[in-house]
What does this fold into?
Amino acid sequence: MPITKADIAKVAQLAHLELDEEEVKMFSTQIADIVAYIEQLNELDTKDTGPALGGLTPEDEQTDSSRNDALKPSLGQKAALEEAPDPAAGHFRVPKVL
Amino acid sequence: MTSVRQKTEFSLNAAEKLNETLNAFLEIDREGALARADELDKASASQSLHGIPIAIKDNICVRGLQASCGSRILGDYHPPYNATVIERLQNAGAIVIGKTNCDEFAMGSSNENSAFGPVRNPWDTTKVPGGSSGGSAAAVAAGIVPVALGSDTGGSVRQPASLCGVIGLKPTYGRNSRYGLVAFASSLDQIGVFARNVSDTARVLRVVAGRDESDATTADVPVPDYTAELTNNIKGARIGFPQALFGTGLDDEVAKRVRSVVDTYRELGAEIVDVDLPHARYAIAVYYIIATAEASSNLARFDGVRYGFRAEDAPELRQMYRKTREEGFGPEVKRRIMLGTYVLSAGYYDAYYRKAQQVRTLIRKDFSDAFNRCDAIITPTSPTPAFNLGDKVDDPLAMYLNDIYTVTANLAGVPGLSVPCGLSSERLPIGYQLLGPYWSEAVLFKLAHAYEQAKPFTEKPPVFAGE
It folds into this structure.
């Protein structure tokens, strides 16, 4: 399927990226090439194959990922704000939303 | 006897001196490392990694040091906590001497995607060290540190290990905790180990591996004493040889070398059996759907609000997000976020993401079928030795194909180990890879150790710290 510059612009918007004109042009070509490559998967008949979703545990093995629901100290407000670009009065300050 | 301080100073001096040539380190912690060394010199030397200097890839959190992930968007971010693997290393007496350069957010196969310039290969500084953990690989290859940690999502430990002539391990998914590893593709990422011999690799894995309550994907599977299992007797071991993977695209010298490794194993008493991984040729396509989809979601957190870089002159919130991400991310990261967002976007999910997860099931099945017939599979690690800096930067697809032998292990969740097996005619290292069933790290170590004893790789690169 051809990928147009409009497709790229739409995806950029979804991904919160503000691409410049040159990037839009470059990505249109490159992503079209990569998508053409990954479409080789269509050669395979997978109608009877389940997806490996949640397949983080090797097959035939169960792992117990539960733990005691115990309280542990958290990072705390001071440490959590230390790396923020614009902390203010114990909060993360951001530009206006509306 | 050398004091811990002396050993640590040696590593720090070498790191500082060789960094002008290699650009392997993004931060060197002289003060912290020496303070820790002095503490250890006063303590008893009973810990398993007592006084061992170690380098850590810059996407793994070490309290007090930066974690840039090779990206401008994190810049001089200093995480307020340690990754679980770092806690375990430090409790075992290891000393972190610095943070190593890498492809931005671990995305790349040449280290050229770092926002802080590429790492250079100690064997030939006009060549790439491989990626994404190129700084860790180069630091170990150049004798700066005996061991280092990296992360491996599609080959990012094994491929640079191969290109730099050192050992590189990607453990079973769930073997090592990912807590404190900056996420790229959560169903594929594993923290791995670099070292110059199998025994050191085994020692470090023993320390870092095992269940961690902070990472629910770690498995409650016992961690064996890997070193104790390094006997030289591999008689009767069955090694799978996937003939079909030794075809098109594989460099002749690499093919020849890896075939000679197979001969050595046969001489050592192993049985070589033919195996087939019929879906391996689809692995790159599957990988670049799943990895980019997961990355597009994981990297959504970098928005200029809580940490790292924020773009200036953006008076409105959404504009601030966009400008921050536009200015903070490099081209490869943007490309992968774009691709991942595309394959997950409305109307395409079934065609790409679901399809890729179905083929991932087929790849897993290939491995479980093969491992019914053998204890481990041998392949090349990388289709070629190290290539020139700049050669593939304009062709992302050609770059992705470097991972052809390594991505299958991440998709299936099985462990992989890259082992050096000689030099090319240009004096560049060549590595072979052993892949095993889940939790078979001990078997891979044993096989690699037997080869290492039979055919020691003793060559040193031109850029080397000396002992």
In short: The helical segments of chain A are 5-14, 21-38, 77-81. The mean pLDDT of chain A is 87. The two ends of chain A are 37 Å apart (CA to CA). Chain A touches chain B through 55 residues (CB under 8 Å).
